[in-house]
Amino acid sequence: MKLTQEDLEMMPAWVQSGTHTVHFLEWLLGDSSLEEVSGHVLIKVPQKDFLFLYTAEDRCLSIKEPLNFCGMFYKNSYSLHDVQEPLREMLGIPRDIVFPSKEETERILEQEISEKVFDIIQNHWDEVLLKKKFKTVQLIPALKREDVRNMAEEFYLEGRTAEDVVYRPKFTLQGQLPDRYYLLYLEQGSHVVNAMARQWIYKRIPEISKQRILYGCIREEMREISGSGCLSKVRQMQNCLEGLKEESVQVEICKKGKTLCIRMRASDLLGGKGRYLLEVLPPRERMQYERIFGKSAALRIEDIQRVVHNRRLLYAQEQEAA
User: Fold this and answer.
1) What is the model's pLDDT at position 321?
2) 119-160 pLDDT, tens per residue?
3) Using an 8 Å Cβ cutoff, are 216 and 143 in contact?
4) How far apart are CA 71 and CA 5, in angstroms?
């Protein structure tokens, strides 16, 4: 098949990028199964709308010598996929021409399926439940209020809002995308994404249902966390000490009408949800603390009035209105 200049202007960039690419494309679109290019024998094997491309080590084909896969051509879009270096070299295609590989396509497919899964379980969950019949007990998780509260507090301290806490499963093929699905995706795109997403969901309905309910409970707990409570002070402290984890800071403590200034590591003020063990204090500071407040007096975020680093005020507890 001879291509005209008008034909070539409608082709992908790779067609006019190499020294032998136009001749190569004409062969792909023709009837011959074999072609010699730059001293190498190329063989094309039809597979529906694709041509699998192989190269032989020698000009003369041998019964015993295996063929080497070197790329794949999609007839509908005139695109090349999984181009191997031998094919690029024999066609004289520059390095800046990039061809999609199966591995890259798999990553894109995983992302698209993950997004479709999220859309289905967010917006079409009732429809999913109607497709498969499960007992109620199979769909509801066994939850403890304390555990849910702890998870909500962790999310809150990470700076997330209740609206941010949404169950978003991640689909993965684990590097095992079958060739059949690979070709189907290149041909049908969104139809394959939708089918694979639904198939994945249908196999995991009880698990997904439990996670959706769990995350819903976490969101409710987060909405109950007071913006002016202990955890709010802990999050404020974390924000103020960001980047100073290994530094030493001066901490002003006010407790039972008494005030004490001690030095602490910033990292010791970043955990514990606002409750700090006295063991984290340096020996000298701990002795001062116990002498003034007593050995059994716990150190709480509410007791910390100010935190200073190199004379710079980092944290100051807001005074609650009476």
Assistant:
1) 38
2) 999 999 999 999 888 899 999 999 999 999 999 998 988 888
3) no
4) 25
How many Cβ atoms from other residues are within 10 Å of residue 272's Cβ?
Answer: 14
Alpha carbon of 104 to those of 100, 175, 185: distances in Å?
6, 11, 13
Asked if 214 and 143 count as a contact pair (C-beta separation under 8 A), the reply is yes
- Quick check: pTM over 0.85? no
Evaluate whether 28 touches 44 at the Cβ level (below 8 Å). yes
Evaluated on CA atoms 184, 190, 193, 196, the torsion sign reads negative
Predicted pLDDT of residue 199: 95
C-alpha 129 chain-centroid distance: 27
pLDDT digits (tens, 9 = 90+) for 11-20: 898 998 888 9
Q: Is the dihedral of CA 240, 241, 247, 253 positive or negative?
A: positive
CB atoms within 10 A of CB 210: 17
Angle between helices 179-188 and 190-202 (to 10 degrees): 130
% of the chain at pLDDT higher than 90: 57
Stated as kind and residue range, the H or E segment containing 108 is helix 102-123
Q: Please tell me the predicted confidence (pLDDT) of residue 322.
A: 34
Query: In b/e form, how buried is each residue of 148-162, taking b as 16+ CB within 10 angstroms?
Result: bbebbbebbbeeeeb
Q: What is the CA radius of gyration of the chain?
A: 32
Tokens 């700076």, located at residue: 159
User: 14: which DSSP letter?
Assistant: G
